[in-house]
């Protein structure tokens, strides 16, 4: 039926993916092998993938590297990238970071985005090649230019944090916007922060709110928290404690520790919700358990000044050694040695 390498690869592909109704990875691997044995580069690459993932054949690192090598030597970009990964981690071949860089470069020069990104990382970290932040930026930009929103957002963060030698907020905004326009929630959140802080763009709280709202609608907890702050402070929107409470609750419910702390403050002061000190301390404790220092401090301050033994025990109850230790120190200062000793013991038992 398939008497040429091209036809054998095409048939193997159809059988592998079940195109036409018949799906059989083992049979597909045999058709790939027939073409690969005749020197067909794409068949060699696909057979390498089969050994790489244990699809249709038993997983075998040495066979993986061997077939990738055969295809890579013929200029197959996908195989060059996969072979680079093999050398990078020593899979099926002896680890050799310099060879990995060589193969990344060959694939990158053919426009392979993942190879360009990993080559940029090699230059960034000086892995297998002398560190060069300019070349790192060049290759990371080449990769991001293919349009992957996640890569674009990550590149924006690198420019924002100065990973390529110095901060460049204008470039950060450019890459955040490219990703944000594709609906990437993290990029929308970061772009909102840029507008809120006037980094790389003219400060504008109304635009910040627009981007926070887009990201918040995608359940980005950080954006939900920032939107709550905007409503609370009346920045970019009309002040609205009800909306502030709504968004801080949504963010806290997703595990955002600072949102949990501020939700506790809402319950404590009665802003946007009926005042409830019990509920306030529940959220303070959750924030403290998450390692948020100010929450631990407010628990210590309120509980240590209380004459209620029950409140002291409840405040020290969270499974957070730092909170318990801080609580114990505060009680020591108040000469309440009995409860201080209890808190220190709980902290010590958790290491």
3D structure, described in words:
The chain has helices at residues 5-17, 25-36, 41-53, 61-73, 77-89, 97-109, 113-125, 133-144, 149-161, 169-180, 185-197, 205-216, 221-233, 241-253, 257-269, 277-289, 293-304, 309-315, 321-333, 337-349. Helices cover 71% and strands 0% of the residues. The N and C termini lie far apart (69 Å). 49% of the residues are buried. Helix 15 runs antiparallel to helix 16 (277-289), helix 17 (293-304) packs parallel to helix 19 and helix 19 (321-333) packs antiparallel against helix 20. The protein is an all-alpha fold.
Major sheet: none
| Percent strand | under 5%
Poorly predicted runs: 309-317
Rough shape?
elongated
Distance, first to last CA: 69 Å
Quaternary: single chain
Count of DSSP H/I helices: 20
Mean pLDDT: 90
Strand element count: 0
Taking Cα atoms only, what radius of gyration do you get, to the nearest Å? 28 Å
Proportion of helical residues: over 70%
**Order of secondary-structure elements:** HHHHHHHHHHHHHHHHHHHH
Which structural class do the helices and strands define?
Answer: mainly alpha
């Amino acid at each position: 039926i398939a008497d040429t390498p091209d036809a054998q690869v095409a048939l193997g592909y159809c059988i592998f993916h079940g195109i036409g109704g018949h799906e059989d990875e083992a049979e597909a691997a045999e058709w790939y092998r027939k073409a690969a044995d005749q020197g067909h580069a794409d068949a060699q690459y696909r057979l390498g993938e089969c050994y790489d993932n244990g699809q249709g054949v038993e997983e075998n690192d040495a066979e993986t590297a061997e077939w990738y090598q055969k295809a890579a030597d013929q200029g197959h970009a996908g195989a060059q990238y996969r072979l680079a990964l093999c050398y990078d981690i020593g899979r099926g071949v002896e680890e050799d970071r310099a060879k990995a860089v060589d193969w990344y470069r060959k694939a990158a020069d053919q426009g392979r985005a993942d190879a360009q990104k990993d080559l940029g990382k090699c230059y960034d970290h000086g892995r297998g090649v002398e560190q060069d932040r300019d070349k790192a930026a060049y290759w990371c930009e080449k990769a991001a230019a293919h349009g992957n929103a996640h890569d674009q957002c990550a590149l924006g963060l690198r420019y924002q944090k100065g990973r390529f030698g110095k901060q460049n907020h204008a470039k950060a905004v450019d890459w955040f916007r490219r990703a944000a326009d594709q609906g990437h929630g993290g990029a929308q959140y970061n772009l909102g922060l840029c507008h809120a802080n006037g980094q790389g763009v003219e400060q504008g709280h109304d635009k910040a709110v627009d981007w926070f709202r887009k990201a918040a609608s995608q359940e980005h907890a950080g954006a939900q928290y920032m939107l709550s702050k905007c409503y609370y402070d009346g920045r970019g929107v009309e002040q609205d404690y009800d909306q502030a409470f709504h968004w801080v609750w949504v963010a806290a419910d997703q595990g955002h520790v600072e949102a949990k702390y501020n939700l506790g403050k809402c319950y404590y002061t009665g802003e946007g919700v009926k005042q409830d000190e019990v509920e306030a301390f529940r959220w303070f404790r959750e924030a403290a358990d998450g390692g948020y220092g100010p929450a631990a401090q407010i628990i210590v301050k309120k509980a240590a000044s209380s004459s209620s033994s029950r409140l002291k025990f409840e405040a020290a109850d969270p499974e957070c050694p730092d909170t318990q230790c801080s609580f114990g120190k505060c009680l020591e200062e108040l000469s309440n040695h009995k409860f201080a000793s209890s808190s220190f013991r709980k902290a010590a038992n958790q290491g």
